[in-house]
Amino acid sequence: TKTLTILGLESSCDDTAAAIVRQASGAPAQILSSVVLGQTALHSPFGGVVPEIAARAHAEKLDICVRQALTEAQMTLSDIDAIAVTAGPGLIGGVLSGVMCAKGIAAGTGKPLIGVNHLAGHALTPRLTDQTAYPYLMLLVSGGHCQFLIVRGPEDFTRLGGTIDDAPGEAFDKTARLLGLPQPGGPAVQAEALNGNPKRFAFPRPLLDRPGCDMSFSGLKTALLRTRDQVIAEKGGLTPQDRADMCAGFQAAVADVLAEKTRRALALYLFEHPATPTIAVAGGVAANTAIRAMLESVCAENSVTFTAPPLALCTDNAAMIAYAGLERFRAGGQDDMTLAARPRWPL
Ligand code: KG4
Ligand code: ZN
C-alpha cells in the first residue's frame, strides 16, 4: 500500500509538459498538478510543427514547467519518489530535451529515472482517470497515431491494427489547411461540419473492403483536394456552404471508417476477453464529438462499456506520463543513466 508520488515530463511533439501524480496502491490516482505549455503560436507561421523550433522551445521551457508543476502541487523535489519521462516515440530533438532534463533531475536528487513510451501514456490514461481494469480495448487516435490495442498491463499490449499512412488528426489538419481554416485543424473542421451536409460530396471509405483492423486516411485528403479544385473550377471559388459541406463529408468518412474498424477490433477483443467488455479511447481526435458519438453507439449496440478521458487528458500532457511511469515503477521497472531517446518505439 505504498503511496508513490511521480514527477512526469513530456516533450515528444509540440507540448512541453510537467505533472505530478500520486497514488496509494489500489486507490484512485490523484493529479496534484499538470502543466502544459503549447507551442502552437511558434509553429503556426510554418503550417505545421517544425522539429528544430519544437526542440529549442522544449529545452527552454521544461525547467519552467517542472518548477510550476512543483509549485502548484506545493512540493519540492524531495517529495518526489521518481522521475518519469517520455523516452519516445516522437520528434527526437524534443524527446532528447525531456530525457536530458529528467536525467539532470535524477542525477541531482538521486531519485530513480523511469523511461515511458508516449503511446503507453495515452493507452493507460483510462486507468488514471477511471481506474479502468485490465484488460481493455483501446482506440488511440491522435495527430501522429492511430491504432487499436489490447491493453493487458503497463507494459503488455497487443496491436490489432492501425493506420498504414496518415493518422486521422493529421488528415483533419491537412483538410483544414486545404480549406483555409486555422490550425489545429480538428476543432476547426468540426465546427464547420456542424453547418454542413455530409451527403453532398461523396468521399471514399478507404480499406473497408479489406479484412482486418488496418486503416488508411491519406486518400481522403487527396479526395478532398480533388473535390475542392473541382468546385473552384466550376464556380470560381468556395462559398462558406461549400466549405462546411466538405468538412461534414470528410468528418463523416473518418467517423464511418473508425466505426467499422472499431466493430472488427471489438469482435477480436471480445473473442479473447468476453468477461471484460470495455473500450477506451484516447488521443486528440477523441475530442471530436461526432467520432465520440459514433463510438458510443458502436459500444451501445454491443453492450460494451465506453470510457473516454476528459479532453485535457486525451491530448498530450505529462500526467499520463507520470501515471504510466508510476505503474511501471510499482511493477519494479526503472532505468539508469543509459536511458536512450527513441524516435521510433512501437508498443
Ligand atoms: O493527442 P494530440 O494532442 O497530439 C498528438 O498527435 O500526439 O492530438 C492532436 C490532434 C491534432 O491533429 C488535432 O487536429 C486533433 O488532434 N484534434 C481533433 C479535434 N481536436 C483535436 N480532431 C478532430 N476533431 C477534434 N475536435
Ligand atoms: Zn500524443
From TrEMBL:
- Gene Ontology terms: cellular component: cytoplasm
Q: Which NCBIfam families match?
A: gcp_kae1, T6A_TsaD_YgjD
The protein's predominant localisation is cytoplasm
Question: Taxonomic lineage of this organism?
Answer: Bacteria, Pseudomonadati, Pseudomonadota, Alphaproteobacteria, Rhodobacterales
Top-level taxon in the UniProt lineage: Bacteria
Q: Name one GO molecular function term.
A: iron ion binding
Q: Its family?
A: Belongs to the KAE1 / TsaD family.
State the reactions this protein catalyses.
L-threonylcarbamoyladenylate + adenosine(37) in tRNA = N(6)-L-threonylcarbamoyladenosine(37) in tRNA + AMP + H(+)
Name the needed cofactors: Fe(2+)
| InterPro entries in the cross-refs | ATPase_NBD, Gcp-like_dom, KAE1/TsaD, TsaD
Q: What's a BP term from Gene Ontology annotated to this protein?
A: tRNA threonylcarbamoyladenosine modification
- What Enzyme Commission number(s) does the record list for this chain? 2.3.1.234
Q: How is the cofactor bound?
A: Binds 1 Fe(2+) ion per subunit.
Could you tell me what this protein is called?
tRNA N6-adenosine threonylcarbamoyltransferase
Function, please?
Required for the formation of a threonylcarbamoyl group on adenosine at position 37 (t(6)A37) in tRNAs that read codons beginning with adenine. Is involved in the transfer of the threonylcarbamoyl moiety of threonylcarbamoyl-AMP (TC-AMP) to the N6 group of A37, together with TsaE and TsaB. TsaD likely plays a direct catalytic role in this reaction.
Q: Does the keyword Cell membrane apply?
A: no
UniProt keyword Transmembrane helix, yes or no? no
Enzyme category, top tier? transferase
Q: Provide the binding site for substrate.
A: L140, V141, S142, G143, G144, D173, G186, N288
| Gcp-like domain sequence ranges | 30-323
The cross-references to PANTHER family, in alphabetical order and at most eight, read: TRNA N6-ADENOSINE THREONYLCARBAMOYLTRANSFERASE, TRNA N6-ADENOSINE THREONYLCARBAMOYLTRANSFERASE, MITOCHONDRIAL
Species in which this protein is naturally found:
Thalassovita taeanensis
